């Protein structure tokens, strides 16, 4: 099994799209997308500083756009191979995304086309930003500690678990006052690291965004997946495009169960875990949570070319 993992918000860094936009067709596509959603993703992916691209309405479309470019390059490189060899590789692919990365995964698995993926993430990001502006909320990563003890401490400070990331990491979310209290009073045997995000994502704070997405869901065509794809709800595989779209809407205000996605991957014998651009965080979680798995990080078109060449060499052996 080859896992194509798609990262979530917070993975973006200044200039991370520069290498991708050296390709004329990729640059043209991103300019077209920018016009459609009213945000200059070319500028934000090449020139804007870290604080600018931290904004939810910018970060989320940027990350999905990077994932689309990664998957396009992957498909292009596979198409260069002998068809029998390419098919052998494709039969091993499984897609999974973390939070907003689920939209990227939907594109990779064939549920969304690129235009639909970008429209969906744009609406999602704008509505989540509106929800975040209602109250001063935030998130913090809790590293280590016994899970029940961590959850009790979160409740004590009025916080909710937003992400169960596996590898001994839970992300807490809620009012900034609660995040500060948790940082000062961490669970036993745990460290708390405040995150640079704009709100309490994947909690009931985002219920308004979920309602808007639900009301507009018919604007987004969803095909049944061509490749296996896992959901953040419980780590299970989803075979219906309609169901996956419903889950995307639901997950905006529900915890990310990445731990259960990794549990499924472990049970199904994942051997290779490849993180799409902008990569790093999920590969790190995989190294800690998936024993014996090989991890690869994609951050440029050249990384994709080298990765597919390696796959082809192994598959042909």
> Which stretches are low in confidence, meaning pLDDT under 50 for 5 or more residues running?
none
Strand content: 15-25%
State the share of residues found in helices, binned by percent: 40-55%
CA(first)-CA(last) distance: 17 Å
The CATH class designation of the largest domain is: Alpha Beta
CATH superfamily of the largest domain, by name, is Malonyl-Coenzyme A Acyl Carrier Protein, domain 2
User: By helix and strand content, what is the structural category?
Assistant: alpha/beta
Structural Rg: 19 Å
- What's the story with the biggest beta sheet? 5 strands, mixed
The spatial strand order of the largest sheet comes to 6-3-5-4-7
CATH architecture of the largest domain: 3-Layer(aba) Sandwich
Number of helices: 13
Number of domains: 2
Overall spatial form: globular
CATH topology of the largest domain: Malonyl-Coenzyme A Acyl Carrier Protein, domain 2
How many β-strand stretches?
9
Oligomeric status of the shown chains?
Answer: single chain
């Amino acid at each position: 099994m080859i896992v194509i993992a798609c990262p979530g918000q917070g993975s973006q860094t200044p200039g991370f799209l520069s290498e991708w936009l050296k390709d004329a067709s990729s640059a043209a596509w991103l300019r077209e997308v920018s016009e459609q959603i009213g945000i200059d993703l070319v500028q934000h992916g090449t020139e804007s500083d870290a604080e600018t691209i931290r904004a939810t309405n910018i970060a989320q479309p940027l990350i999905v756009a990077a994932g689309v470019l990664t998957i396009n390059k992957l498909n292009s490189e596979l198409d260069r191979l002998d068809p029998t060899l390419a098919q052998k590789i494709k039969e091993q692919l499984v897609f999974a995304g973390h939070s907003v990365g689920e939209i990227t995964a939907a594109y990779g698995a064939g549920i969304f086309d690129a235009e639909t993926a970008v429209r969906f993430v744009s609406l999602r990001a704008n509505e989540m930003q509106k929800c975040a502006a209602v109250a001063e909320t935030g998130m913090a990563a809790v590293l280590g500690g016994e899970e029940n003890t961590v959850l009790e401490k979160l409740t004590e400070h009025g916080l909710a678990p937003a992400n169960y990331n596996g590898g001994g990491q839970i992300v807490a979310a809620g009012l900034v006052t609660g995040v500060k209290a948790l940082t000062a009073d961490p669970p036993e045997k745990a460290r708390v690291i405040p995150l640079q995000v704009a709100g309490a994502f994947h909690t009931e704070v985002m219920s308004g965004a979920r309602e808007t997405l639900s009301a507009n869901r018919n604007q987004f065509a969803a095909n049944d997946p061509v490749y296996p794809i896992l959901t953040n709800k419980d780590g299970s595989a989803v075979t219906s495009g309609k169901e996956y779209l419903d889950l995307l809407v639901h997950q905006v205000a529900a915890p990310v169960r990445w731990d259960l996605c990794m549990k499924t991957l472990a049970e199904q014998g994942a051997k290779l875990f490849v993180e799409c651009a902008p990569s790093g965080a999920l590969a790190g979680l995989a190294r800690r949570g998936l024993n014996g798995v090989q991890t690869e990080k994609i951050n440029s078109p050249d990384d994709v070319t080298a990765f597919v060449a390696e796959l082809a060499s192994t598959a042909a052996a």
